[in-house]
Write a structure and sequence with these properties.
The protein has 665 residues and is mostly beta strands. The chain is built from 3 helices and 43 strands. The chain has 3 domains: 201 residues, Immunoglobulin-like, CATH 2.60.40.290; 297 residues, Tachylectin-2, Chain A, CATH 2.115.10; 118 residues, Galactose-binding domain-like (Jelly Rolls). The strands form 10 sheets. Strands 1-2-3-8-5 form a 5-stranded antiparallel sheet, with no helix packed on it. A 5-stranded antiparallel sheet has the order 6-7-4-9-10, with no helix packed on it. The chain has a 5-stranded antiparallel sheet with strand order 34-37-42-39-40, with no helix packed on it. The two termini are 27 Å apart. Keywords: Glycosidase, Hydrolase, Signal.
Amino acid sequence: MSGPTGRPVGRFGAAPPARRRTAVAIASVLVASGLATLTLTTTASAASGCQVSYTTSTWSGGFTANVSITNLGSPLTGWTLGFTLPGTESVGQGWSATFSQSGQNVTATNVSYNGTLGTNANTGIGFNGTYTGSTYPGDPTSFTLDGTTCTGAVATASATPSPTPTGASTPTPTPTPTESSGPSTSPSPSTSPSPTPSSGSAAATLQNDVFWKDTSGNPIYSQGGGVLKVGGTYYWYGAKYNGAVTYYDNPAAGKNSDVSFNAITCYSSTDLVHWKFEGDVMTASDVGGGSWVGRIGVAHNPNTGKYVLVSQLGSGLMFATAGTPTGRFALAGTQSSIGNVSTGMSGDQSVFVDDDGQAYLAFSNKNGRANLYVARLRPSDFLQVEPASNIYNSSSGGREGNIMFKHAGTYYFCSSDLHGWNASHTYCITSSKVDSSYSAEFVMQGTDADFSHVTQTGLAIAVNGSAGSFVVFGGDRWSDFAGNGIGYNQWLPVTFNGTTPTFHSLSQWNLDAAAGTWSVGAGNNYVLNPSIEADRVSQSTMAGWTGSANVGNHLGGHTGRWSMQEYSSSGYTADIYQNISLPDGTYTLSAWIKSSGGQKSANLLARNFGGSELDRSISQPIGGWTQVSIPGITVTDGTIQVGVACDANAGNWVYADDFDLVKTG
């Protein structure tokens, strides 16, 4: 994932001499007509020079814009950015700034945590927008910071005072911030701010639930792969499937089944957040055309000095070598069976490299996948998988997406349910030995409420730094083939209490790879399973939520496939909620709503947070997806309960999707 997202980066002014960044957060939400808008006002100093980078990711009728602002002049204690949107473009949901639009003129004013902007300091903001017509109208051509045009130079005269954001009327949000009509598959609570390091530290902000971009602003295509660290650089290898390109180009069209192989891609990074595209290290023509290629890993063989790539190829395995981590890799051999394996070959697999440099294949058997194995790659060259050790046999079903990692001397072998492309709990076994004496299976703590952040196990990265250590869980969200939301790669921190791992399901978090530390991002959405995508089939009880009768998931969501439903053919009451532990502070709750109207009462609500219950009525007819928000929720008890409740007549219904609970102060 990279700082820039979407279309090629457009910069207004030269690069600053030094670049520091601040963590981003979802700060304000434009709400449905008649509801309050949270607005934070500040006193701004005059800017004397600035640079702006504006990048977009577009689809039919909508776009996401990420804006990076660098102050080249004197320190600011408050700021306002101004720009003009072309054509029919309109601002929808925003983050890290308070947005106001009058005609095509837009102002974005800082929020509480990013108002101070020192000389050469940088901050990121963004928004989802819509447009009419068949063609994206384009990007803004000019920006001002506190009235000073951003040219990349420091003005010699005093800057014009900041324009005052218009406040005569509250902007009305578009029904869907990421799609012009119909069920959307680009989640509103999962906006795409640039992943930027926190100011004054080496931490970088990792944003989940979005399509990641490389450092050139192009989509990252890397699924079913692995990461190899060489010196201070991480190299990430994975498969690019043609169906992934199709889904990225138009997620509103839904999932597809095009698993045809395009290339094995390679990206490099020093911080595990900003990824440079190094190129396609193998393509379909290198492996003989249209066979299945996937579950890829790379290891460095100390005897030959070669980098060895191992992947499934059709019904067997292939091995390829290169002299450098970035290839290209040349096919060096294949293998049609593995000794001691019940069905002769691997199902899902990954490559694990131990501390001594020896590489292993961690896998389940083909067909059924109930038996788990670890097998050494031939030490002399890593071009053969030696006979395997059967480390565990699952009695509760097959296991796939097998990964392996090591922390503090303990080996962890983790897998997903046999759910095809869909999300799953994460199941683990542990041992002090790489290929024997594994424990009984257990579900990793933290993966139950939203099925591992709506992913299945994909890869693992041990992060060992100067101040700590943890593991990055690289979840594969096969949204191209499952239709379960936005983003292919969801990476989360895993911490340890002794040998017990805990998964932290976060939409945004800060990662310092050098220090080996992490923290929750300022823009994290604290609701688990907010888009109701964890359950792959119709359910009356949804993962992460507690409900009464007359609730369940509904096929047809604002994003992805599913939404939450309250309905009965006779008069009824319904209440569905989630209890959340979170830091004290001020929050905004929002959700996307449809409603039949006519209920005796129906509300989006926040309660049990240390203050009086807050709600917004949704008992009026709401025919199209509309975002409803409750700003200014002051949490003082470290907990909150959020949800939807109604007292309804026969046939009344409410659909809710894409819940968002973000700290604003």
